[in-house]
Amino acid sequence: MPNTADKSVKPVAHVIAHGGDLGEVRRRYPDALLPWIDLSTGINPVPYPIPDLPAEAWTHLPSHGELQGLIDAAARRYNVDPHMVVAAPGTQALIQLLPRLFPVSRVAIVGPTYEEHEVSWRRQGHDVRVVDTLPTDSEVTVVVNPNNPTGRLASISDLQAVKGLLVVDEAFIDFHPREASFAGRNAIVLRSFGKAYGLAGVRLGIAIAEREFANQFRDELGPWAVAGSAIEIGRRALADDLWLARTAARLEVDGKRLDDLLTRAGCTLLGGTALFRLVRHANAPALVDALGRHGIHVRSFPREPSWLRFGLPADDSEFSRLATALSQ
Hints:
Layout: H1 23-28, E1 37-38, H2 56-59, H3 64-78, E2 85-88, H4 91-97, E3 106-110, H5 115-123, E4 127-131, E5 140-144, H6 156-160, E6 165-169, E7 188-192, H7 194-197, E8 205-208, H8 211-221, H9 228-238, H10 241-264, E9 268-273, E10 276-280, H11 284-293, E11 296-297, E12 299-300, E13 307-311, H12 316-327
Helix pairs in contact: 3-9, 4-5, 10-12
């Protein structure tokens, strides 16, 4: 598909608050218990062990063969043709790139969800609306599946019924059955490496699309878009099925443990994924404040003041601190 987007559209500045930035929180609670426990993200708190990397991963430009090794590992992991796989420096880069590849369109985003999708499409002048359910009348539909922060999972049949271009952000789908993924079907699918593998700082994201769109991504990203270190770490991690299976089992146990703590603290479970829980609390701002004074950071939502999102504690020590803070 040729890039016919209107280059005269002026970007719109919009800053979104995200989890994971402790700077402002530390300033707000200078006397908080240390070290801080950051539960504000949906990043796996027990990351994939970083392997020893050859010096060339840092000193040389990545070769085509090295990048192809990552592509092949991702294609096997996501069960798709390697020609459909594009590696990028983080899924966020793909989210911002996508709206620049298309002419001004009617875009429906199933929400509430990760706000960068809405901002990125609006920034390029598209006609954007946020809808509650999958639409049937938009030229472009964007759905985060499972959704962040609600955890809602759209079925394959519902996704197949969508007309027009479908973009499916599967940042949190790694611990669902493989059959839940829309990868390899008639859509642009985005996969995050950093969430499931706990290595967000590696900055590695994957787009899966038909060759026409995949080639557009490659052209726009240009050569050497992904660092040599990210290529090597990603290749090894994506090929490690045993680690992923063991992690899924651990997350299931830890998720139930977190559910119990939150329920006993007066929270109502609304949804979530293997990596986070969304809850409602009658006095969420006060709970955020109490946790902050205990050195625990959770995600709040200005648009939904009673909502809080809790990532999983990393170990028994963090669970114990959370239990103490919630009980007080």
